[in-house]
Design goal:
Shape: globular
CATH topology of the largest domain: Rossmann fold
Bound molecules: pantoate
Largest sheet: 6 strands, parallel
Number of domains: 2
Radius of gyration: 19 Å
């Protein structure tokens, strides 16, 4: 199945479906990791996690135009299929699905999947249409692969909640698993967009996780939360971040306040130089 050069690569839905049909006929379960490529250790950890839960692992690599706004980085987004396949060769990935835009949207976009209660807040407020693009492409990918389990990073916390809600509402028969964020030793969450950071900016970027931890400590002690938030916002601005948001929400439902919740999630999105970075931290609350 898997050659020495790495996983077998399919670019058409029909070829991938033939491969999956023969895999299923041998009684194998299928794990799926959807990505936009430019793979880093965070993605490879998702692949390892999928392999713990399924016999055969499929990774999709598709830079989805529908989830990028008109002034976002769709054209600049790094496309590195060859090095991605090399990286996957050392990991339990059996096949890569790397379709063209035409293969995924042969007739353009006529049908959209939307989870409005979650798609218009936080990142959705700053990136209108983004989660509609994510939900639509993930529905299409799940329909193509029909995996037993699909693994997504907890780093994209809001995305994961949109996907969980959509899968439950549309009765899609797949188990959605969230995997821990992989971090640099500095605490910086791994992301393909870190490639846009200079060396100096990368050092500064690690402040985001430190901020989340500082606020997390205040939340856990239930003391000085709003002062801490205000101070941290000022510290980030002084370091050169342009903040989209720094907010605390109910971890189970991002559309709700954390005040009555059992667990809270602190979410941040900020621009630093050319990169837009996001991160989050979940905190158990003892009221
Ligand atoms: O998280 C990503 O890389 C993308 O949003 C996803 C889930 C692959 C959909 O394009």
């Amino acid at each position: 199945m898997k050659s020495d050069q790495g996983p077998v690569v399919f670019s058409t839905v029909s070829d991938l479906r033939d491969f999956l049909a023969s895999t299923r006929s041998r009684g194998k379960t299928i794990g799926f990791v959807p990505t936009m490529g430019n793979l880093h250790q965070g993605h490879l950890d998702l692949v390892n996690k999928a392999a713990e839960m399924a016999d055969v692992v499929i990774v999709s690599i598709f830079v989805n135009p529908m989830q990028f706004g008109p002034h976002e980085d769709f054209d600049a987004y790094p496309r590195t299929l060859e090095s991605d396949c090399k990286a996957l060769a050392n990991h339990p990935c059996d096949a890569v699905f790397s379709p063209t835009v035409r293969e995924m949207y042969p007739k353009g976009v006529n049908t959209e999947i939307d989870v409005p209660s979650l798609s218009t807040i936080l990142c959705g407020h700053h990136r209108p249409g983004h989660f509609k693009g994510v939900a639509t492409v993930v529905t299409k990918l799940l329909n193509i692969v029909q995996p037993d389990v699909a693994v997504f990073g907890n780093k994209d916390y809001q995305q994961l909640q949109v996907i969980r809600t959509m899968v439950a509402d549309l009765l899609i028969p797949v188990s959605i698993v969230g995997a821990d964020t992989t971090r640099e030793p500095s605490g910086l969450a791994m992301s393909s967009r870190n490639a846009y950071l200079s060396k100096e900016e990368k050092d500064t970027a690690s402040m985001l996780y430190a901020t989340l931890r500082t606020i997390g400590a205040a939340l856990q002690k239930d003391t000085q939360v709003s002062t801490t938030m205000k101070n941290e916002k000022q510290r980030l601005a002084a370091a050169g971040f342009v903040l989209d948001y720094l907010e605390i929400k109910d971890a189970q439902d991002l559309s709700k306040s954390y005040v009555e919740a059992d667990s809270a999630v602190i979410l941040v999105a900020a621009k630093l130089g050319k990169a837009r970075l996001i991160d989050n931290l979940v905190v158990e609350l003892t009221h």
